[in-house]
Specification:
It contains twelve helices and 18 strands. The relative contact order is 0.14. The structure holds alpha-D-glucopyranose (GLC). The site of alpha-D-glucopyranose has 6 residues, from loops.
Amino acid sequence: MNFQRLLFVASLFIGSVCTSAAYGSSNPHLSADDCNVSGFTRYKMSAPKTDYEVKQQSDSAMQWMHDAKIGMFIHWGLYAGPARGEWNMNNKGIMPEEYRKLAYAESGDQYFDASLYNPKLWMDVARSMGARYTVLTTMHHDGYALFDSHYMNAFSSRQTLNRDLVREYVDACRNSGMRVGLYKTLINWRYPGYYDVTGTDCKPNKFGYTTAAWHKENARLMKEELYSDTRTLMTEYGKIDMMFWDGGWLAEQGGDRDAAYFWESYKYVEPDNQWQVNPYFLDRDEANGKWLGLIGMVRKHQPDILMNPRTGWIGDYTCDEGPKPVTGKIRERIQEKCLTIAGPWGYSPAMDDESKMISVGQLKRYLADCIVRGMNFLINVGPDRHGCIPEATSRHLAKFGSWVDGIAEAVYATSAGPWQPVDGKYGFCYKDNRIYIYLLGEYTSDQLALPAMDKGYRVRKAYALNGGYKVSVKQKGQMVTLGGLNPKKDDVEVIVLELNKNI
Ligand code: GLC
């Protein structure tokens, strides 16, 4: 632990002792003045690390994500037709030749026709829920590309609808000022070799594949398709701000990093790799002529892109997936919480029914818990097979968005801190000369004793941001106690502290 971290941890400890001391309970020997070694901790992301020869992005490249806070995730693909989630092909062991019918009119009311697809309307939903970026599944594990894949074995919307759905999406993002995020999985269920990359040891699977020598070459082709598609996405759609990778594993086994040897999610490919990508699909590092691996290729074409860690490479930011409550300390780098509002990630009928969704109250709580920990919040929607985000979903998210709008100054471009959150009770973020206190729904007292401020700071004024009432302030040196709070059980309340100068 370096000195700065040590000081930080020490300050938290002292901060919490002071909090209870201010109530006069736990330690009668501690007075507020004893706390003056403590104070603010300014938010600072941990320094960029290098992994597989690629360095994480700098703070300045990460800044837009830090400021944006809210994103809209979009899971859309052939699976919208059957409406049983994006894992349906696998769950039911549907063979590729059967599954592909979803892309054609013969599948009737399950046909992915994209007939009402208008991504401008998606952007309206994103804006109304407070999102500043969106992330679209350009290809999920079923291997259907929403873009113009050039790979010889491609299966894409260009072929089945004569439309490049990703291009339409990217254009709509830019026209509406949204940062452009793409989701892409590494794996592909259209290739049996995915379960048997050595051709000698087929892993359990729902499709009934068993060990076969030709699987090794088949797995190599799957990898080659990934490289080909990645180059397409990174070179033909202009500036891409963010890449949300998924499926860095193999055969649904192990973690993302366990299969990096296969995907070569490195800066360079290895000359003796057993699954060599044909150089036709590779790019070189101009500096030394070496062939680039997956991450090297992405960075070459998109030097400012932000990536998650799901290829096995460390990632510029980290992920927290699923509905588990957000707890703990301020994160060392941006962490993105992602969850879906109802059922699976791909379209399901629950997305047409507000009563089946994560409530607006819960969404508020997730956002608050994210903001006070230096995290972003990526909320998933599942458009139907025609391309519409269900009405009920849009309505629901707009309610959340209008709350966000009312507290916008406590959301966008704020930094977590200057003190650590207390799970369930409260947490903080700040910007300029204001500290925003999020009361998280389990704090019921009308008073709050804050951890110590830095010397020389005074609270000029305190009030509830969205509740419109005044909050009383008692300040003694670095210690402040607020009074007259009116937190509602299980609801989020934001209190503003205006200070005499910037933090
Ligand atoms: C999970 C799901 C996958 C989804 C992803 C989104 O990994 O299995 O289908 O796309 O979450 O983060």
